[in-house]
Amino acid sequence: MEQNPLVKVGSFGQGVWLDYIHRHLIESGELKGLIVEDGLRGITSNPSIFDEAIEGSEAYDEVIRGLGRKGKSAAEIYETLATEDVGRAADILRPVFDKLSGRDGFVSIEVNPHLARGEEATVEEARLLWKRLSRPNVMIKVPATAEGLKAIRRLIAEGMNVNATLLFGLPRYRLVAEAFISGLEDRVARGLTVAGIASVASFFLSRMDVMVDPMLEKAGTAEGGELRGQVAIASAKVAYQMYKEIFGAERFRSLARRGAQPQRLLWASTGSKDPRYSDLKYVEALIGPETVNTMPMKTLKAYRDHGNPEPRLEEGLAEAQKCLAKLAPLGINIDEVTRGLEEEGIEKFNKPFDSLMSNIQKKCGS
Questions:
Q1: Taking Cα atoms as reference points, which of 287, 279, 276, 170 lies closest to residue 232?
Q2: Largest CB tally within 10 Å, which of 68, 200, 241, 283?
């Protein structure tokens, strides 16, 4: 077990999570095996993952048909299936949560992505999911849009665990951390405890390089060529320094003395999308304490096979800062890029959700 690279990642203070969920993973014992053998500490899910799980297998068919015969809508059926899977996965991860005193062992479930621009609707759905799951190691995923930031603050203030997702830009990351801390402060102002509330800020990586690399190539300069494939990791390294600054300041330390946990950075979208890059590109460079890396199953297996973990997150910080500084002279406004990625990301979450509803409807009649 000591030789397993995934286990070694955990020894450096990073939580290894799986960006995948499926009923077979739970019922077959595979999830338990990943926890015991690979040191898995968490799971992230989203409608796209559930869409693939439901469309690509018969594991859910009987339950879907049964709920359909009872007159349940596709949305109600999805909520039932998703909360059942997330709840069971959370129960399997509960010993990890308990062993680590609530610092890890979480399973995330996402609100309907169509609500990304609606604060009130997001809060209401998050409350329903939180109440239905009723487990301390569940996180509610909320897109970190402008409206989502307000929802995140309110949900933290209500004592929920929140995964602030769909995060690309550094300015937006600072606002996510602000929403989290403000939510904790709101609780203190009401005389409520801040102990036991967990949150992560999910920074999406490979999608950033997919967007920026063609811009660098279009620039047609040697410098642009040198920056290809560097921007996402550079942004993550700078984000981690921001994390240390924000959560090392007295404002948060005063909350920590009351039992508050920092909001960890979570590296998401860590499967390489460009075949020219290493399949471990977004894992190897970003191992460091008090962080999480959520990997697709393919990436997790690849890391188990040939990962070489070392704490590299704070290496090359000066180079990372220079990388980001070189973008503007090349005509690339990184803040505009990340805003575009947010808009694109919302749409990429909406489409699989709509596909999921359609597939459930079809299986109701099969």
A1: 170
A2: 200
The token duo for 17 is 């999570």
pLDDT of residue 153: 98
The tally of domains found in the chain comes to 1
CA-to-CA distance for 194 and 196, rounded, in angstroms? 6
Average model confidence (pLDDT) for the chain? 96
pLDDT at 176: 98
**What pLDDT is recorded for position 3?**
85
**DSSP letters spanning 112-158:** PGGGTT-HHHHHHHHHHHHHHH--TTEEEEEE-SHHHHHHHHHHHHT
What's the pLDDT score for residue 2? Answer: 54
Which of 32, 99, 131, 141 is labelled catalytic?
141
Alpha carbon distance 229, 225 (integer Å): 9
Cα atoms found within 13 Å of the Cα of residue 313, Cβ hemisphere only: 25
Determine the structural domain holding residue 61 and report its residue range: 5-364
DSSP SS3 for 267: strand
| Phi, psi of 204, deg, nearest 5 | -85, 135
The CA distance from 132 to 87, in Å, is 9
The β-bridge partners of 199 are 162
Q: What is the pLDDT of residue 16?
A: 98
CA 153 to chain centre: 17
Q: What is the pTM of this model?
A: 0.96
Asked if pLDDT for residue 366 goes beyond 70, the answer is: no
Q: Which residues pair with 291 in a beta bridge?
A: 14, 265
pLDDT digits (tens, 9 = 90+) for 281-314: 999 999 999 999 999 999 999 999 999 999 999 9
Q: Is the CB of residue 191 less than 8 Å from the CB of residue 162? A: no
The alpha carbon dihedral of 185, 187, 193, 197 has a sign of: negative
Q: Would residue 363 show up in a list of annotated catalytic residues for this protein?
A: no
pLDDT > 90? residue 4 = yes
186 Cβ contact partners less than 8 Å away, ≥ 6 residues apart: 153, 156, 157
CATH code of 334's domain: 3.20.20.70
